[in-house]
Amino acid sequence: xxxxxxxxxxxxxxxxxxxxxxxxxxxxxxxxxxxxxxxxxxxxxxxxxxxxxxxxxxxxxxxxxxxxxxxxxxxxxxxxxxxxxxxxxxxxxxxxxxxxxxxxxxxxxxxxxxxxxxxxxxxxxxxxxxxxxxxxxxxxxxxxxxxxxxxxxxxxxxxxxxxxxxxxxxxxxxxxxxxxxxxxxxxxxxxxxxxxxxxxxxxxxxxxxxxxxxxxxxxxxxxxxxxxxxxxxxxxxxxxxxxxxxxxxxxxxxxxxxxxxxxxxxxxxxxxxxxxxxxxxxxxxxxxxxxxxxxxxxxxxxxxxxxxxxxxxxxxxxxxxxxxxxxxxxxxxxxxxxxxxxxxxxxxxxxxxxxxxxxxxxxxxxxxxxxxxxxxxxxxxxxxxxxxxxxxxxxxxxxxxxxxxxxxxxxxxxxxxxxxxxxxxxxxxx
Amino acid sequence: xxxxxxxxxxxxxxxxxxxxxxxxxxxxxxxxxxxxxxxxxxxxxxxxxxxxxxxxxxxxxxxxxxxxxxxxxxxxxxxxxxxxxxxxxxxxxxxxxxxxxxxxxxxxxxxxxxxxxxxxxxxxxxxxxxxxxxxxxxxxxxxxxxxxxxxxxxxxxxxxxxxxxxxxxxxxxxxxxxxxxxxxxxxxxxxxxxxxxxxxxxxxxxxxxxxxxxxxxxxxxxxxxxxxxxxxxxxxxxxxxxxxxxxxxxxxxxxxxxxxxxxxxxxxxxxxxxxxxxxxxxxxxxxxxxxxxxxxxxxxxxxxxxxxxxxxxxxxxxxxxxxxxxxxxxxxxxxxxxxxxxxxxxxxxxxxxxxxxxxxxxxxxxxxxxxxxxxxxxxxxxxxxxxxxxxxxxxxxxxxxxxxxxxxxxxxxxxxxxxxxxxxxxxxxx
Lengths: 430, 430
Description:
The structure is a homodimer.
Chain A: H1 17-22, H2 25-31, E1 39-42, E2 49-55, E3 60-66, H3 83-98, E4 105-109, E5 114-117, E6 124-125, H4 126-131, H5 137-153, H6 161-171, H7 175-187, H8 203-211, H9 213-228, E7 232-234, E8 243-246, E9 249-252, E10 259-261, H10 263-279, H11 288-316, H12 332-366, H13 372-375, H14 380-399, H15 407-417
Antiparallel strand pairs in A: 1-2, 2-3, 3-5, 4-5, 6-8, 7-10, 8-9
Helix pairs in contact in A: 5-11, 9-12, 10-11, 10-12, 11-12, 12-14
C-alpha cells in the first residue's frame, strides 16, 4: 500500500495516457512504434476507476487508474484509492491458478494507482451480452472454473497456513471498499436510509422485508459469516458485470473488492445475478422462454461445474494444506471417509452461497446499487413485478433454506416465484 | 515486530537483569534505591522464555525475556523470538477490557524481546494450587470473566470491523507458535510421530484413536474452525497453567499464543484442563470425592459465568460492532428476537468449545505436551487409567456432541467415564 499524494497524483485522460505509457518502457514496447501513433479511448463505466484502451502499431493495453473519489459524486465523495493495490495483489495471487480466465496484469504503479493489463478484444461485459439475448454457455462454466480454482488454491486445503495468513493479513487492510460492501449489502436494505433506491410499486415489499424479523435474523447469520469466515481469497464482486466474454473466451476482471472470506460469497454472488437475469427476462432481447431456459441451464452448469471442479482439483492436489492433513486419512477407511468429508465441505459452500445469493438479490433491488438487468425493463409496474418475484425467492432462500438442498431446487423454484406479485403477503410462506 | 539480531541480543541472567532495569528509568524508578539494592531471581519454568522477579526497596517487577530457541533443547531447536511482540500486543489490546484480571504491562523492548510487568505476589500457578488440594472457587469465575470480556470486546459484536481487522492483520503474523499449536494439538496425536509421548498402558487407546475415522472426521471439523473462524482475539493457551492466583485474586498470564480465532477455543481449553484435573484426582492432595465435587462445581461456574457475563456485557454494550446492527432489531419484535440470537451466539461458542476441549484433552495425553496433573500420579497403571477415562470422555465429546447440550451434561458424564479403563473398545459407544 502507499499513500495518496494529491500533489503528485495525476489523473490520466485519454490524451495523457499515452505520455504515461511512453514513460514505462515495458508498456511502450508492447504498443510498438512511437507515442504519436497510439490512440487512447476512455471506456470507464464504473464509479471507482478511469479505464483506457490504448492501441499501438504492435499491440494494445488496458490502463485502469483508481480515482480518489467516487466518480459520479466527484470530489465531494472521497474514496480510499488503495483499492488499486488490492486489485493488483489479488490478480497476482490468483494468476497462477486461474491462468487465462483473467486478463494478464502487465504493470502496477503504486504511486499513480495505475494497473496496465491485457486489452480484451472483442470481449464485452457478460451482463450486456446476456441482456442482448446472446447465449454464452461457456461463461458460466468458465467462471465456475475460475471461482473453484481460486477458492481451493488459496484455502487451507491447498496451502500451509503460514502462506494463507499472509493473504489474510494483506487483504485485511482492504477496508474502504469493504465498508461500502458491508453497509450496502448487509445493512442498508433492512433499514430506511437515503441511499436506498426503491421504486414506488415495491414500497410494500421493501417495508415487509425491513419488518421481517425472520429475514433479518437470517441476515444476522450470513453477515458475521462474511466478516469471520476466513476460508479463501474471494473476488468480492463476482457477477455478470465482472466478466468479459466472447462466445468461447471468458475473463474475470475487477478484483478490487478482494477479501479473505467465505468461498460461498463469490458463488452466491454469481448465482444471484443469473437468478435476477432470469426474473428480469421481460427486459431482455430474445424469446422469453428460450432465454429463461438458457439462464436456468447456465445456473445449473455454474454450480455443478464448480462442485465437480472443486472436488477434482482437491483429488488431484498433493495435500500440502493444513485443513485436512492427508496423514489422517491415509488408510482405506480414511480415504473413503475423506470422500464424504470433501462432499460435506462443498455442500457447506453451497449452503453459504444460497444465503449470500439471497442477500445480494435483496441489495440489488431495495438497496443502493441497482442493476441494468432490471433498469432496462420498460414500465415501472413490469419492472416491479420482476423484482418482486426475485425478492420472494430471496426471502424463501433465507427463511426456508432447508427447501433448497441442491441447485435443482433453486431452478425449480424460479417459475414458482415468477408471479409472486407486488403484495409481499401473498407469498408469505412461499 | 522486529528482527532478532544475534549480535545485539543479550540473554538476561539473574545477575544482569538489574543492569538492564537500571538502564530503563521508568522501571528503575519502580524499584527505587540503587541497582545494588535490587535482587533478581530466575523463576522460569516454561520453554519459551526466561523469567525474573526483581525486588527493590520501593517496588518489584517481573521481567520476561523471549528466548531464540526452545529452552529444554538449547540452540538446536531455534524458535522465532517475536512471540514476545505478540504477547505485548495481546496484553495491550485486552488490558482495557480485562483490567486487574491480568498483570499490568509496564514495558516492552522490541530489540531485547523483553516484557516488564507487575510482579504478582503471593500468587501461585493455578494448576499447582489445584494439585495441592487448595480450593480456588474464585479462579474459575474470574477466568470466565476475563475470557468473556476479551471475546466480546475484540469481536464484531463490539467493534467496527475496521478495528477488528487491525487485530486480524497483526496476529496473522504470530505464525511460529501457531505452527507448534496446530501440529501438536490438531495433527500429531492422530499419527505416529516421534514427538508423541504415550505411556505403554495407553498404547491401545492411542492406537484406537489414531484408527478412529469418526474421531478424525470430527477433528477435521474443528481444525478448520481454528484456522478460519476469525471471531475474536483469543489467548490461545488459556488453562490452569496460565493463571496465577490467590484465594481472592486471579491474573491471566502468558498471551504469546494470541491469535484471532474462534472464541470457543479459550473456553474449551480451560474446561479441558479442569476435566483432566477431575480425572487425575488420585494424584492430588486432599480427599478425592470432595476435590472432585469442587472441580465439577468450578467447571459449572466457569461456563455459566462465561455465558452470563457475555450476555450481560452484550446487553450493556452500545452496539458499535458490525456483527448485529442494532438498527435491524430496534422494534419490539426485533428486540425479542435479538435475545434469542444472542443465546444462539453463545450456544455456538459452547459447541465449538466442547470440540476444542476434547481435542485438547487428547493432545495432552497421547501427544507431546503432558501435564503435571497426570505426571504426579504415582504408578503408571493408575496414571493410565485416569488418562484413559479422560480420553473416553473426549472421544464421546467428538463423536456424539449431541449428548452434551449444556455444561450439566458434561459434568454428569465425568463419573460415567471415570472407570472407562484401558480397553478402548469397552466404551466404544460411551
